[in-house]
């Protein structure tokens, strides 16, 4: 098994429905990842242990998804200089606006890169991680270019329905 290049972490197993899209993006490009549900608030010590284990194992970046008072990405970023990509969960009461603002309003000096709320943000965080890894991996860059080409072809070939 290849050592994980990307650590995916989410505040709860209930985030997996959304966070699986980040995992899918990485899997589709053959990028090894490890995904865990660990909370900044509920399991702070375990989270720190896992971050350290991932860094020692050779991880190149982290993707962190959380909802509500979504401190997870910021807490990960506080522990590493590796890039941290943040995915806001569409929370029950505020539809993810709370998660988004918690993540995007990081204090100066400890950045996280915040993506869109929900599935698209999660998939894009995975694709962005692939882009970063592709800087030093020509085969991965070629795969990404092919993926973009296929996507463009599908849009160009799309036809709108006739009016009835
Ligand atoms: C956050 O609280 C998690 O990231 C999740 O989005 C939200 C709800 O968690 P559960 O109550 O479903 O475990 O920490």
Structure described in brief:
The protein is α/β, with parallel strands linked by helices and 164 residues long. The protein has helices at residues 16-28, 44-56, 72-79, 97-104, 119-134, 138-157; strands at 6-10, 33-37, 61-66, 84-88, 113-114.
Sheet with the most strands, sense and barrel status? 5 strands, parallel
Compute the number of helices: 6
* Binned strand content: 5-15%
Apparent shape? globular
Count of DSSP E strands? 5
Query: What small molecules does this complex bind?
Result: 5-O-phosphono-beta-D-ribofuranose
Report how far apart the termini are: 55 Å
Going by helix content, strand content and strand pairing, the class is alpha/beta
Report the mean per-residue pLDDT as an integer.
Answer: 98
Order of helices and strands: EHEHEHEHEHH
**Percent helix range:** 40-55%
Rg of Cα set? 17 Å
Query: Order of strands across the widest beta sheet?
Result: 2-1-3-4-5
């Amino acid at each position: 098994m290849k050592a994980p290049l990307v650590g995916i972490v989410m505040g709860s197993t209930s985030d997996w429905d959304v966070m699986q899209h980040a995992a899918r993006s990485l899997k589709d490009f053959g990028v090894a990842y490890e995904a865990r549900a660990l909370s900044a608030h509920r399991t702070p010590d375990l989270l720190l242990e896992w971050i350290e284990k991932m860094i020692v194992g050779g991880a190149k970046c982290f993707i962190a998804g959380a909802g509500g008072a979504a401190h997870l990405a910021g807490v990960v970023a506080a522990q590493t200089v590796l890039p941290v990509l943040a995915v806001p969960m569409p929370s029950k009461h505020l539809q993810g606006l709370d998660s988004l603002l918690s993540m995007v309003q990081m204090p100066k000096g400890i950045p996280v890169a915040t993506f869109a709320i929900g599935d698209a943000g999660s998939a894009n965080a995975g694709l962005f991680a692939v882009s970063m890894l592709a800087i030093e991996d020509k085969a991965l860059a070629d795969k990404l270019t092919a993926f973009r080409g296929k996507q463009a072809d599908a849009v160009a070939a799309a036809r709108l329905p006739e009016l009835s």
